[in-house]
Amino acid sequence: MTLLAAQELVKEFDVAGTAGLVRPARRFTAVDHVSFELHAGQTLALVGESGSGKSTTARLAARLIDVTSGTVLLDGQDVTTLSGADLLEVRRQVQMVFQDPFSSLNPRHTVERIVTAPLRYQKRPMPGGSRAVAQGLLERVGLDPGHVDRYPAQFSGGQAQRIGIARALAVGPRVLVCDEAVSALDVSVQAQIINLLRTLQREEGFGCLFIAHDLAVVRQIATTVAVMTAGRVVETGPRDAVFDDPQHEYTRKLLAAVPRIRPEWEAARRHNAGARLETTTSTPRGE
């Protein structure tokens, strides 16, 4: 079942002209007719270089910014024009995990206050009180429940990102949008956060829209991959199909730039590339 879908999303921004020069204001298209589908319990990875439009697409999907045109569907309902209580419910169902955990956590607030903030914002009950709820959330993400009175600066980067994930889980979202959620972390910590997200997804069944530029990370978590460049999706497919037999030249360039940590990935890619070359250069049957 399709949980979240984007249909022909477009986002344009006004770019101011340069004072004193004959350069008028113009419109910049950051997202150009992007469509995708995300299913419950699966992870769709939007990948591409910096400036490809993937993070803007994520913010459109989460209704953090408004679309210029196109639609975002949650369970088949168009959410692009919702406001008030209806938009508040969308925000409950679609939660964000941001790139820099420290920038997204208020340094003046305790962990208890941080992770229960969505519940207060949504005016939802907290059985047993906010402290008990915060302790339960910390335990779910692998942190010491006794640390609810600490402040963000007292945690490592990986621990801070776990706090961000706990905050996102507080209201029971059906979609988790992870915008470069592990790119600021060390490789070993990245693996821990990826494993945590996969475990939580199995337990909770949420869909995950995972924004990343690191294809090695994407290979570990994605079910489906959509490759973006210049605001457009140029290739979409199951993870293994995209990695082992990329069809678009841009996808092949991205994969060629990835350090080959696992030789079997490179072997599969070379085999499929060779098969394509042989097909295009061989004499057609019957001639």
Automatic annotation (TrEMBL):
Signal peptide: none
Family: Belongs to the ABC transporter superfamily.
Keyword ATP-binding: yes
Alphabetically ordered keywords of this record: ATP-binding, Nucleotide-binding, Transport
GO molecular function annotation: ATP binding
Name recorded for this polypeptide: Peptide/nickel transport system ATP-binding protein
Spans traversing the lipid bilayer: none
All copies of domain ABC transporter, residue ranges: 10-255
SUPFAM superfamilies: P-loop containing nucleoside triphosphate hydrolases
PANTHER family: D,D-DIPEPTIDE TRANSPORT ATP-BINDING PROTEIN DDPF-RELATED, TRANSPORT ATP-BINDING PROTEIN
